[in-house]
């Protein structure tokens, strides 16, 4: 699908060695919506996600953010892009040697000149948003998997981005914590009007958080639509994926 999205991928192609991962992917994510990208293991979901804030560049095609092409930008320009489009990594990517508060404050120390008091206030604000108030002094090793996911999300929120990219946000979590993370993704969308793109293999989570879903298979987007359209689709590959899930 193309169109004037807040995040727009046009005919993206990307290979790693002999393996063609994206073979002309086009997808438009509208401002304020939650788009879920589904697909089998190795289908290129995370590769596509990383194109959306310039962590990976395409061999051909282009990525536009609010109408501005980012796919050919230099690294210093991409730093500004990543302030607007933050990523929550699958492995959380927290620094073990830092407290939760220090982890969350890190982007502020890198990208702003806020005072110590302002940083402290912003950290508290982010922790409240993810339900971790009072956890500033914990270290990652002292936290559960679900708490680490929320701390990583708080760090992504600290620069007040316009979009959040989630890479498998519920992987490795028990059903109760999975439900909490899914609810948090929806709540943040409503509270902050943030645009969200969620990569997941978990169909149940996908149907909870998505406004629309995209199905990636063999390097192409096979389907984009609402939950109802997704379940009513006659696409054979999509039916096979749903049956496997």
Which features does this protein show?
six-stranded mixed beta sheet, Rossmann fold, four-stranded antiparallel beta sheet, alpha/beta, 10 strands
Structural description of this entry:
- The chain has 245 residues and is of the alpha/beta class.
- Helices cover 39% and strands 24% of the residues.
- The chain has a domain of 168 residues: Rossmann fold (3-Layer(aba) Sandwich), CATH 3.40.50.
- Strands 6-7-8-3-9-10 form a six-stranded mixed sheet, with helices on both faces. A four-stranded antiparallel sheet has the order 2-1-4-5, with helices on one face.
- β4 and β5 form a beta hairpin.
SSE arrangement:
Elements: E1 7-16, E2 19-29, E3 34-38, H1 45-51, E4 60-65, E5 68-69, H2 75-84, E6 85-88, H3 100-111, H4 116-129, H5 145-157, E7 163-167, H6 175-192, E8 195-199, H7 203-209, E9 212-217, E10 220-225, H8 227-232, H9 236-244
Parallel strand pairs: 3-8, 3-9, 6-7, 7-8
Antiparallel strand pairs: 1-2, 1-4, 4-5, 9-10
Helix pairs in contact: 3-4, 3-5, 4-5
């Amino acid at each position: 699908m193309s169109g004037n999205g807040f995040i727009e991928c046009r005919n993206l192609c990307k290979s790693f060695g002999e393996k063609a991962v994206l073979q002309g992917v086009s997808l438009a994510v509208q401002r304020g919506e939650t788009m879920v990208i589904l697909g089998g293991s190795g289908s290129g979901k995370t590769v596509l996600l990383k194109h959306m804030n310039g962590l990976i560049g395409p061999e051909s095609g282009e990525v536009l953010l609010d109408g501005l092409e980012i796919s050919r930008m230099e690294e210093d320009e991409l730093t500004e892009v990543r302030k607007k489009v933050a990523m929550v990594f699958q492995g959380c990517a927290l620094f073990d040697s830092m407290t939760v508060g220090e982890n969350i404050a890190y982007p502020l120390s890198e990208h702003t000149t806020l005072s110590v008091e302002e940083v402290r206030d912003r950290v508290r604000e982010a922790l409240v948003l993810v339900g971790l108030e009072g956890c500033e002094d914990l270290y990652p090793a002292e936290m559960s998997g679900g708490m680490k996911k929320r701390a990583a999300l708080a760090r992504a929120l600290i620069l007040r981005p316009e979009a959040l990219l989630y890479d498998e946000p519920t992987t490795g979590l028990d059903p109760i914590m999975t439900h909490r993370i899914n609810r948090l993704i929806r709540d943040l969308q409503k509270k902050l009007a943030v645009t969200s793109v969620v990569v997941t293999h978990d169909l149940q989570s996908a149907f909870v958080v998505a406004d629309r879903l995209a199905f990636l298979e063999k390097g192409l987007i096979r389907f984009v639509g609402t939950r109802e359209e997704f379940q009513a689709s006659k696409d054979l590959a999509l039916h096979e994926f749903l049956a496997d899930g």
